[in-house]
Amino acid sequence: MKSLGNLFGILSPILFLLVFTTEGLIRPGYSPASMPVSALSIGPRGWIQITNFLISGTGILFFALVTFRQFRLAGKSGLAPILLIILAAALFLSGPFVMDPPGTARSLWTLHGWIHQILGAVVFTLMPVICLTFLFALRSMQVHVLFRIGTVAATSLMIVAILFMKLSQAGRPLFENNLGIFQRTALFSFMLWLAGLSFQLRRVLSSSK
User: Fold this and answer.
1) Which residue from 43, 53, 90, 95 could staple onto 119, CB 3.0 to 4.6 Å apart?
2) Counted domains in the chain
3) Cβ atoms within 10 A of the Cβ of 180, count?
4) Which domain holds residue 14?
5) What is the pTM for the complete model shown?
6) Helix, strand or coil, per DSSP, at residue 2
């Protein structure tokens, strides 16, 4: 179960990145630089990104549940994996609750559009928090120094990218046409960090027993 959980922790975030990146490049009329990943869920080909949310969310959720069990067996706080469980659930639910088309006025958002926006806010808020929470939880373990440095760097990049996302959504000059770039920067930083986390957990939690 532990090995399977680590495998899901590696493959699920990589799958998520590969699918939305590939689909964003080949989807007619879609601009990866200016449009959010969730916009790929709209239209006749939307099922591809919806399925991506569902499969990747399920995989990360499984990894988080296995990690929670490992943490409890190791006598550590389960806060970090619980936060990851919440993020995975929000990522999963972002599939069926499709966003409204980009540019739709807030007053015209549908119920499923509002739910998607709330789920997205949960995901992006939790991403840097999860990184730092795991780093703190593993502080007494033999985590590789490069992982510690990478966690701080990835977290910093996420925070900056999310801030720029907000400026883009607010229509600020120099930012408004680059929402897709900022969002992808945050997602790539987190998902690659998550894949790296699974390698670290496999080593440090095994040696702690």
Assistant:
1) 90
2) 1
3) 21
4) 2-207
5) 0.93
6) helix
Closest CA to 88 of 117, 130, 47: 130
Rounded CA gap, 108 and 188, in Å? 31
Query: Both tokens of residue 113?
Result: 């559009």
Alpha-carbon gap, residue 57 to 13, rounded angstroms = 9
Long-range contacts of 37-41 (CB under 8 A, 24+ apart): 37/180, 37/183, 37/184, 37/187, 38/94, 38/98, 38/99, 38/116, 38/120, 39/99, 39/101, 39/102, 41/95, 41/98, 41/99
CA atoms within 13 A on the CB side of 63: 28
Say how far apart CA 170 and CA 160 lie, in whole Å.
Answer: 15
Q: What does the alpha-carbon distance between residue 167 and residue 70 come to, in Å, rounded to a whole number? A: 39
Residues 156, 17, 24, 54, CA torsion sign: negative
Query: What is the signed CA dihedral for 47, 33, 90, 55, rounded to 10 degrees?
Result: 40
Q: For 25-84, what is each residue's pLDDT tens digit? A: 999 999 999 999 999 999 999 999 999 999 999 999 999 999 999 888 878 889 999 999
